[in-house]
Every structure is written in C-alpha cells, then in structure tokens.
Design brief:
The complex is a heterodimer of chains A (538) and B (183). Chain A contains 9 helices and 24 strands. Chain A has helices at residues 3-23, 29-41, 43-60, 80-114, 116-124, 129-132, 141-154, 160-172, 531-536, and strands at residues 184-196, 206-208, 212-224, 229-240, 246-257, 267-269, 273-277, 281-286, 291-298, 300-305, 317-320, 323-328, 334-338, 350-354, 366-375, 378-388, 408-410, 421-432, 441-450, 452-458, 461-464, 478-482, 489-500, 512-522. In chain A, strands 1, 2, 3, 4, 5, 6, 7, 8, 9, 10, 11, 12 and 13 form a 13-stranded mixed sheet that branches. In chain A, strands 14, 15, 16, 17, 18, 19, 20, 21, 22, 23 and 24 form an 11-stranded antiparallel sheet that branches. In chain A, helix 1 packs parallel to helix 3. The longest helix of chain A is centred in the N-terminal third of the chain and has 35 residues, at 80-114. Chain A is elongated, with a radius of gyration of 34 Å. Chain B has 2 domains: 1-92, Rna Polymerase Sigma Factor, Chain: A; 94-183, Arc Repressor Mutant, subunit A. The chains are: A alpha+beta (538), B mainly alpha (183). Chains A and B meet through helix 1, helix 2, helix 3, helix 4 and helix 7 of A and helix 1, helix 2, helix 4, helix 5 and helix 6 of B.
C-alpha cells in the first residue's frame, strides 16, 4: 500500500465520520468545511460519498424501499425502546391530526357539492396548470393529466414520501383514503407592480397545491377556492397546500381577509404557528426569522402551534380585534402585544424621483426639460431653452445645498421695470404612471430661486408659494408639496419666478436662476383596512 | 387549421413530451440533486424549480440527444441558484466540489444502479423495528431532533444508532456486490 493509498483511506474514514453529521444537520461550520475539502481533494472520498448519499436518497426519496419486507436472520435489535417510544409519539400526533383531516375532508365534500357545475368546468380546464408552468395557451386534457401525474412528486413538505407513509398507515388502520382533491386550490386575483422569483404570473392564473410563490416586488392578491383573500407584500414566499382554504406563509407579510361564510376557517400555516381565521381581517408578519407576529384588525382569529410534541401540546389562543401576538421561533412562547395596522401599510407607499434641473449635464449645456415660456407676461416665441449655469452669471448662488440638481440660468438684456421686478415662467413636464392611485399622489419639491418663487401653476391651476419679497429663496433651500390638480399621465408645472433688481444693480442683464429637485410620491393606503381597494384599485 | 390551433397543438406536444421524459427520469434527477445538496427537502425544492425551467426550455431540446444529461444541467444551475439564495442558512459545497461530484455521479451511475438493487436485498435483513426506525427518520415529516424529542432519547443516541444502521447497510451492499462479482 502506497502513501497515497493511506491518504485516500484516511480521507474516506474521515468522510465516513463527517457525512452522517452533515446529513442530520449536526455538522458545525468547521466540520462541513473539512468535508468540503476532503471531497475536493480525494476521488476515493467522493466515491464513498456518492455511495453513501445514494443509500440516503433511496431511504428518503420517492421510493418504496421502506415498504415492509420479510424478516430474515437479524442483528440484535438495539432500537426497540427508541422505536416503541417514537411510535407512541407518532400515534399521538396522528390522533391530534385526524380530527383536522376529517374536518378538511368534510369541507372538501361540501365544496365539491357547491361547485359541482364549476368543478366540471375546472376539470375541463386542467390545462390551466400549464400557464403555472409558464406555458401559455390550452393543452389537451390528456397531456395535462400526465403533467399532473408529476406534481405529487414535486410537492414540498407534503411531499411524496410523507404522503405515502400517511396513506400506508391509514390503510393499515382501515380508514379509507381521503377523497381526491382538485389540484387547483387558489387563484391569483390581482397584482400591483408584482415581480416573481420563479416564473411570470398574471391575474387569473390558477394556483395548484404544492406550488411555491416568491413575490420579490410589489403586491399580489390570492383568493382561495373558498373565497378567502390573502394580500402579499413583497418580499414574501408562500406555498399552496392541499386545501381549498389554506396556504403556508414561509416568509414575509400577508394580510388575510375573510368576508364570506365559505371563507371562514381560512388557515395560514407559518413556521411557528397556524392562524385560523374566524371571519375577520388580520395581518401576519413572518419577515423576521426570530418570531412571527399575528395582528387582528377585525373579528377574531385562533393561533395554534404548527408543530406538536409531547412536551408542547396544542393550546390554541384566540386573538380579538385590536389584539396581536408575537411568537418566538426558539421558545414558541406567545407574547400578547397591541395590534399595529401600520406594519402592513408602510411599504405600500411608492416614490419616484423626478430628474433635477440640469441633472447629469455639464455647465453650459441646455436642459431640454426646462424652458422659459414668458417674461413679464409676454410669451416667448419660441420659448427660451435654459442652460446649466456656468458659474459666471451670479457667483453667490448656493451650489451645495441640493444634491441632485444644478442651477439653470438666463442672463439677457432687459429693461429694469418700474417696480424693479421681472417675472419669469419656467416650464417643465413630468409623467405620473397610470398604475399610481392619483388620489394618493403628491409631488414633493425642494428648490432655490433667484430671487423668489412666487407661485407654481399645476396643469393651469395657480398655487401661491411665497410672496414675501423680503425673504427671498435664493439663499436657503425651500420646499413645497403639490397635492391637487395632478393627473395621471403628463403633467405641466410652471414655476413663477420673480427676479428683483437691486437698487445698486445698474447692468441691463440681471440673471435669473432656478434649481429644483424632488419626488413623486404615492402615499400608503388609508388606515381603514380596505387594502383590496387601496392596493389593487379594481 | 389556423395558426393559434397549430400553436396549441405544438404546446400539447411539448407538454406531453415533457411529461413522458420527466416522469421517466425524475428519480434519477432527484438522486442527482440530493447528491449535490444532501438534504431531501432541499433536493425537492431544487427539482421543482428545475422542472419548471426544463418545461420552459423544452422547445430547445434536441431530440437526437439524450434527455438526462440535458436535464441535469438545469438541476445543476438550480443548485447554484439555491446555494446563493440559502447562503446564510444552509451550508453547501463550494462550486469546485459540486462540479467534481456532478462529474463523478454521472460516471459511476452503473455502479450506483447495482448498489440500489443490492440495497433491496439488504433491506429484507432488517427487522421490522429497524425498518420502522428508518421510516420514521426518512418518511415522516420530522428530523432527527423531533424524533429524538418524541422518543425521549438524546439526539446523540439516535444519531449513533442511525449511523450504525446505515453503515451496516453499506457493508451489506458491498458484500452483495462482491458476491455478485460487481465490485
């Protein structure tokens, strides 16, 4: 045996120790790094690893390898007590879940009766699954059924091995298998600025049990087959489960709305707790890994633990309107807190920055977005295109107080008027996207003007800003907000700038200047809890 | 036949072909995925995402080429994406190791097929209780911590017993392959 063989054998022995730890999630960072290094450096270690993983996959994967087989000569049974205890614990869990399963079966039968006609249509539309898999159009039912046959294998924590085990156990106990369920359990009913991690989804897409959705931006509304509404706020990941009135919130925020009798008992499963709606509006924030929060805004919900152990029996807690609970991930402890509706509204606000005057341009370059259209009430034909100030016109204009804009200036020969004031109209345009709720849109602007911004004209409506000539706006940044007269699409804003001739200023060219930057804001929905109307605006 | 009907027929053909090819290869793809990420639930997540990608790209699949190597690429890419998204929560191998495992797994697939066959024989040598232990560990919606908690035993004890049981099965498979002249 060579030194190299010794090294390989030692590597294999080390992998044999580390790999079981990694498989059970017990390897620490150093142990995992060591395993990584051994597999990188030793082909023999990789061969052992692949053989061991193959065994692991066969035991845990979609296979019938664990179906009971005949007993032959056996090694000493060192597991008896452990297994007996585990079987007892499993039996307890089964008893706890049987009532829930029975309830779901009853609800499903009722649902099928009510939707008998619709169900036949739905079954004819089984190809709706195809859009979910990102193929558009209608496919033949036969093809769709073949695709559907793949789906049970693809489900997540209700995956095939677990289902097989449950079904086998159920059959052993003589209980009939649950009725076959419609794989379509919900519909995507509305979106706003939604982006998805896995695939492109659009309103009216049907959603199937086992499907996992990650909303990376915007909002989405999902309606279960029973009519419960879940509004998701990005970033959020959910998973549809095998029920017409339930889903799993893996991470993120969800608002639940149940306004019909059939949607009552809407169940949201989170890693920490199950939340059962009792006819209400509520919010769940599972954004934080350390805890999950349940806030009730109307009606009542029941909170119970997602997992059951011998030491932590199921003890449901009810939350009423105005109440909330925070459940710790580590301890499963439930602390009651006050409901906070703002948690579920803050990010509904949107903001679009408007380009500042002269933004991105060099000194002396024209800014095509800005023109002077009038001087002292006399229209300019054509309008005067404004240039970025070169710094020579009036060296006392502040240059640093605003960050996204530059001065636009004009110095031209003009007679000093009798009152020593010239009035210039600076005009610009901007767009308000049609997706914004115009009733909630504001334009927040910050500006400097030489000498004074007297007013703005919003789509022809004059709004006075500041007429105190003794307090000019050339030295310090001022701001104002436009809340009225805005329209979806293009908006015209005219800045009425008054320029003052100093008594000692004898030149015929008195420079005028304006510097503006700001944002277009869509405010958060009002706090009346009407999220559907506010967010999706049917 | 109008254009839209032709499109529908083409989609039908694609989805039928996908279903046929995917169904016949899904177990192999699952084994490939779990060889890269080790955990069943991670492999299932990856396979779900990969299956969507495969279906999307069925139009570009060259029929004269074998399906499995083509489909494996999607699984591998999904593993890389998954590793990036889970970087903070799950330890996964670095890219170099993933590539090596990926190559080796393809090369030794015939050997692994023999081992799977041998495993079935070895399973018959376990007692029903031993099989139950494996079933609880692998087929229930539990992990070793939950099984240990439910049984009142320490994770360490349970870990040792599972490790010994898997080692015994590995040795049994090796013996069977030697006996059959395959090792």
């Amino acid at each position: 045996m060579t030194a190299s063989d010794d090294q390989h054998n030692a590597a294999v022995a080390e992998v044999a120790d580390l790999l079981p730890l990694a498989l059970e999630g017990l390897a620490d960072t150093d142990q995992f790094s060591r395993l990584n290094a051994l597999l990188r450096d030793h082909a023999a270690a990789r061969l052992y690893y692949l053989q061991y993983i193959e065994l692991h996959a066969e035991l845990g994967g979609p296979t019938d390898i664990l179906v009971a087989t005949e007993t032959c000569d056996v090694p000493p049974d060192v597991f008896r007590e452990v297994i007996d205890d585990a079987l007892k614990a499993r039996h307890r869990r089964e008893l706890e879940s049987q009532a829930q399963e029975q309830l779901e079966r009853n609800l499903q039968r009722e649902h099928e009766k009510q939707l008998a006609a619709a169900t036949s249509v739905d079954r004819g539309k089984l190809q709706i699954i195809i859009p979910v898999w990102a193929v558009i159009g209608s496919a033949a039912a036969a093809a769709a059924l073949i695709v559907l046959a793949v789906l049970p294998f693809l489900k997540n924590d209700t995956a095939a091995p677990q289902q097989q085990a449950v079904q086998q156990d159920t059959q052993v106990q003589g209980v009939p298998a649950p009725p076959e369920q419609d794989p379509i359990v919900a519909t995507l009913t509305a979106t706003r600025d939604a982006q998805w991690a896995q695939t492109d989804l659009a309103p009216d897409d049907r959603l199937i049990a086992g499907q996992r959705l990650t909303l990376t931006a915007g909002f989405a509304e999902i309606t279960t087959s029973r009519g419960a509404v879940a509004i998701l706020e990005a970033p959020t990941t959910i998973e549809l489960i095998d029920s017409p009135n339930a889903l799993r919130l893996i991470t993120g925020k969800l608002i639940g709305i149940c306004e019909t009798d059939s949607s009552k008992d809407f169940l949201v499963r989170t890693p920490q707790v199950d939340v059962t709606d009792l006819g209400t509006r509520f919010g769940i924030d599972a954004s934080n890994q350390d805890s999950v929060e349940v806030h009730v805004f109307q009606g009542e919900v029941e909170v119970s633990r997602s997992t059951f152990t011998a030491d932590s029996p199921h003890q449901p807690q009810r939350l009423l309107k105005g109440e909330a609970a925070r459940i710790s991930s580590d301890t499963q402890r439930l602390d009651r807190i006050a409901a906070d509706v703002s948690l579920f509204e803050t990010t509904a606000a949107r903001e679009i920055r408007l380009p500042g005057t002269g933004e991105g341009l060099e000194a002396g370059q024209p800014d095509p977005n800005w023109q002077i259209i009038s001087v002292d009430g006399r229209p300019l034909e054509p309008p005067h295109i404004l240039n970025v100030d070169s710094g020579n016109d009036y060296n006392s204009w502040p240059t640093t107080d605003l960050s996204k804009s530059q001065w636009l200036s004009w110095k031209h020969d003009i007679e000093r008027p009798a009152d020593g004031r010239n009035t210039y109209l600076f005009q610009t345009h901007f767009e308000i996207p049609g997706s914004m709720d115009i009733e909630r849109v504001q334009v927040a602007l910050r500006y400097l003007a030489d000498n004074q911004l007297a007013a703005v004209h919003v789509n022809g409506h004059r709004l006075a800003i500041d007429s105190d000539i003794a307090d000019p706006s050339v030295r310090e940044v001022r701001s104002f907000t436009i809340e009225k007269h805005l329209v979806a699409g293009q908006n015209k804003i005219v800045f009425e700038v008054m320029n003052l001739w100093p008594a000692t200023y004898l030149h015929k060219s008195n420079p005028v200047g304006l510097r503006v930057e700001g944002e277009l804001k869509e405010l958060a929905p009002a706090t009346n809890g009407n999220w559907r109307q506010r967010i999706f605006k049917p | 036949m109008d254009e839209s009907q032709r499109d529908i027929n083409a989609l039908n053909d694609l989805s039928e072909e996908f279903a046929r090819l995917y169904t016949s290869n899904q177990q192999t793809l699952y084994r490939y995925a779990i060889s890269l990420v080790m955990r069943h639930e991670d492999a299932m997540d990856i396979l779900q995402e990969a299956s969507v990608a495969i279906l999307r790209k069925m139009g570009s699949y060259q029929r004269d080429k074998p399906f499995l190597p083509w489909a494996r690429r999607f699984v591998y890419l999904e593993v890389l994406r998954y590793r990036k998204s889970k970087a903070r929560s799950i330890a996964m191998f670095d890219t170099e190791v993933l590539e090596q495992i990926s190559l080796d797994a393809e090369q030794i697939e015939p050997l692994l097929e023999h081992r799977r066959t041998a495993l079935r024989g070895c399973m018959t040598k376990l007692t029903p209780k031993q099989q139950e232990l494996l079933q609880i560990r692998y087929s229930e919606d539990t992990n070793i911590h939950e099984v240990a908690e439910a049984s009142g035993r320490s994770v360490h004890t349970l870990y040792d017993q599972l490790k010994r049981l898997r080692s015994a099965l590995m040795e049994c498979i090796d013996r069977q392959l030697r006996k059959d002249g395959l090792a």
